[in-house]
Amino acid sequence: MSFLEYAPAPESKSILHLKKSYGLFIDGDFREGHGTPFTTISPADESPIAKIANANAADVDTAVVAARRAYDRVWSRMSGSDRGKYLFRIARLVQERTRELAVAESLDNGKPIKESRDVDVPLVAAWFFYYAGWADKLDHAGLGAAPRALGVAAQVIPWNFPLLMLAWKIAPALAAGNTVVLKPAETTPLSALVFAEILQQADLPPGVVNIVTGAGDTGSALVNHPDVDKVAFTGSTAVGRAIAKSTAGTAKKLTLELGGKAANIVFDDAPMDQAIEGIVNGIFFNQGHVCCAGSRLLVQENVHDEVIDRLKQRLSTLRLGDPLDKNTDIGAINSKAQLERIRTLSDIGEEEGADRWTADCVIPDKGFWFAPTIFTGVETSHRIAREEIFGPVLSVLTFRTPAEAIAKANNTPYGLSAGIWSDKGSRILGVADKLKAGVVWANTFNRFDPASPFGGYKESGYGREGGRHGLGAYLQSGWHAPASRQLPASRVEPRTSRVEPAASRVERAETARAPKKGSTR
Amino acid sequence: MTARLAVPKTYKLYIGGAFPRSESGRTYEVVTRKGDFLANAARASRKDARDAVVAARAAVSGWSGATAYNRGQVLYRIAELLEGRRAQFVDELRRGSGLTEAQANREVDTAIDVWVWYAGWADKYLQVTGNGNAVSGPYFNISTPEPTGVVAIVAPQGSASGDGGLLGLVSVVAPALVSGNTVVVIASEAAPLPAISLAEVLATSDVPGGVVNILTGSPAEIAPWLASHADVNALDLAGASDLDWVDLQVAAADTLKRVLPPEPGVPAPSVERIQFFTETKTVWHPKGII
Amino acid sequence: MTLEQPVALAPAERAVQLIGADLTEKSLKLHLDGLSGVDAVGLEARAAGLATRSIKTSSKAWALDTIIRLIDLTTLEGADTPGKVQSLVAKAMNPDPSDPTTPRVAAVCVYGDMVADAVAALGSAHAAGGRTGINVAAVATAFPSGRASLAVKLADTKDAVDAGADEIDMVIDRGAFLSGRYGIVFEQIVAVKEACRRRDGSYAHLKVILETGELNTYDNVRRASWLAILAGADFIKTSTGKVQPAATLPVTLLMLQVVNDWHRLTGEKIGVKPAGGIRSSKDAIRYLVTVAETVGEEWLQPHLFRFGASSLLNDVLLQRQKLTTGHYSGPDYVTID
């Protein structure tokens, strides 16, 4: 017997009070959808979990109408501090029901319970806590005096971090004073529906958050709904591009969090043992279903063999299996379709001449699984070096100089994240400056925090989530005041009056709205 | 004594720090409000637009890599040069756009003041739009705005607000430059002369060649090529309200460009305009003492 | 900077193989300075990750027995007496009188002047180089501070070896290390190793205590671990137990990583001994997990891994009784030594 055959230590499903079927959450209640319901399954064994309502265009419209009504009558008239209190309540309820949410997430998504329990759900609570505090401090968000909510936000989220992406979307939207219609991914609706029950427990006014489940057509109906003021999407670049086109020419404010092909750069002076951990965490965290995954490893040529050796040794200790087992490192691939895509691209990698190495894991009979895989000898022209695989597959490339590392790292239409491993401070800062990526992790990887803005350059999308910047994505800036107040005075007055210093204009604007403080907007 | 015969200026494009004619060889007549001939301006082609993007891309690294203090000084120097040439601009605004002397003076004053306002932001916008983040863990975490890269702009095309072709141009070019972007701008089609005179100012200043590229001609003809150009990072449609600007926005979506929609009149000076053409980059690093 | 006459170092076999025949203080320093750095946050995060593993119940029984087999049962007090040592030895030989299946500990660890008492108390249970039985380990070299002349340290070592010690736990000169005089630290280990030589030509096993709490930084721990191995250590050991912090999981993980590096490089297996501060079974199991996932399960044997501990044994016995009987035990049901 190997000591390392750790106990199957499954988190009990009994904590989860699953219903047989879930409706759409509209205007504070669950209701039937008018589309054909679908079944969500556990990707670990393909067993059905629950029947889920399917929202058609009429259901989406009902949800948007409910959100608009809640915005007009309740949420936009409520004080910031009261909005904040609701968000604090939600944060607390998430903390109280952490176990249950983690189990729901791992069951439906296939991610290891240690990740849903230690990363996803705690971050969900943190996200609500963070933005709760912003709700009555919008004047200090750096967006000018009295920034205004946008109205109804349409939000479409992916399946890789179902509940966390929900939090990233809903928390800042509500804090800023918007109401929400959110569509979870088709394969992972469960945690959002448990979350809807939390909203009921929090006594959130009906219509402030509506959750409509369904597939692409539901999402399309939502983002293209004419009464939507804001669209926030996280998902593939292809869909993001389509949304950018369909919202062109409208007044809808758009933020997009799309794909990535992050370079994780390892210099020869890196803290090597931690770099190995960082590489593993970078690409095998959440089975590589991470838009900011460090999927392109750029290793300085003189340490390439050592890094690969160590990496293989480390990967052979990873445990693949039951997502609900506390000792599982690598869970299930979220869907059959995604598994096919990972297989196809990996096969292409082999055909293109890269060397494939796969960790020796026992693959369960049922469910969707892919063992951790490394490709060495990958060239910049290979498809596995350019396309997002979104799975536990690492492409390894080499470089000789920092300049070459930067050039290769930036040689992609994406620009979401990047990693740097080096013991030399000046090099870290110098390289970080030159990387075209919205998040740069130096001597760490895949860290997330509600206070820290996240989002990409180039085709990885636009706008930021998290921090003050994430709040700005849901506000109309106070700078958009009447033009006469904004323009330098000499445009409208005789030339003797020159441009006023910007500061005094700000002060005047703040003074002007001071009496309104605490009132509704 | 007979009147001296004047020496008229040839108005050309401004690309990569040089003044080429359009590669197409085309020009168009610039006339006064009354319809009198003023000058022949170059009518830029899609290839001129392409060349301008290449020049702009090549200039990104140097301009964005300069210190903020240096960029601020270089931009301030433009204001000094504009002030020195104010008579020329006033003259062009009066002849070309039919402004009164008072109106022309006001536009030049405002343009200079707007330029100075933006120049002063170069080493401050980062402090206002970036921040350190209190993350939960032993990490240093800071968010800073960085230039998005190459910005293509359709300058205001003249409007009821009395823009004679200088203030509108300055109001869209300066904010993009502040953070270190480089610019390809399509000038006012009807009033291109101040744009080329501004180019002369830029050419004799410390702004490196390629940082600002000015095209004259038809926005309807050139803008689609810039909107769909994969090596353009952002699109400012400030002056595009009379174009099929939704199509331009759709074309820009192919490479997920950042797009500012049309604005009536002349865009007001704002930090937002600077920020819009920046990307927030967040850098994490562990903090440990042992 | 001037070029000084290179200070030649004793040609310890491992160092010569790795650094070259003309081993000098300078070449040693260059070698150690070339080691990869350690990021503290990343190291501690990895250790915390390893600490979340939970093991099977069947594995747990095995783990508890393994922990006992890996313990150096220790008494290092100024107040130690022959009687105290006899009591310790009795406990080492028969940890749980209520359960004869309980394994014995690996060794008893005492001050050098108590070695003879320990040997006498062990009698036929003394391993004395054999595969079975209990070893006697002695701390030496002016333990715990190490502040004495080399002659004193060597005499201290020889005394213990002559009295029958199977293992010597020496301390490095942390002062010399922290002031950059790696040559002194190296030469002393080489000399102590030689002092471990018995009359018959065999050697007492040498454990080199780094006192990681005083070295303070992880980079220093990595350098000192590497230095000790180069100089001939059979084991690298975290702490004397007299300085806080003593053994921690991140420090032990780091030392295991060094041992792993050495193994990859040379095929040779070096032992690791965390000592001080490990008091509960739960803690000790985390160390086992860390060993198994870093260098492999093969290291979970007394010649490659030890716990330097005193109170740990009783907690393990309590847990062991719980596994056997199914209910929680209490301190009155395990013996004090």
From TrEMBL, chain A:
Residues 484-521 are annotated as: Disordered. The active site is at E257. It holds the Pfam family Aldedh. The keyword Oxidoreductase applies. Residues 32-477 form the Aldehyde dehydrogenase domain. It comes from the Bacteria. Signal peptide: none annotated. InterPro entries: Ald_DH/histidinol_DH, Ald_DH_C, Ald_DH_CS_GLU, Ald_DH_N, Aldehyde_DH_dom. Keywords: Oxidoreductase. Belongs to the aldehyde dehydrogenase family. This is Aldehyde dehydrogenase family protein.
UniProtKB/TrEMBL annotation, chain B:
It comes from the Bacteria. InterPro entries: Ald_DH/histidinol_DH, Ald_DH_N, Aldehyde_DH_dom. The keyword Metal-binding does not apply. Transmembrane segments: none annotated. Residues 23-243 form the Aldehyde dehydrogenase domain. Keywords: Oxidoreductase. This is Aldehyde dehydrogenase family protein.
UniProtKB/TrEMBL annotation, chain C:
Keywords: Lyase, Schiff base. Pfam families: DeoC (PF01791). Pathway: Carbohydrate degradation; 2-deoxy-D-ribose 1-phosphate degradation; D-glyceraldehyde 3-phosphate and acetaldehyde from 2-deoxy-alpha-D-ribose 1-phosphate: step 2/2. It catalyses: 2-deoxy-D-ribose 5-phosphate = D-glyceraldehyde 3-phosphate + acetaldehyde. It comes from the Bacteria. The keyword ATP-binding does not apply. This is Deoxyribose-phosphate aldolase. It comes from Leifsonella bigeumensis. The gene is deoC.
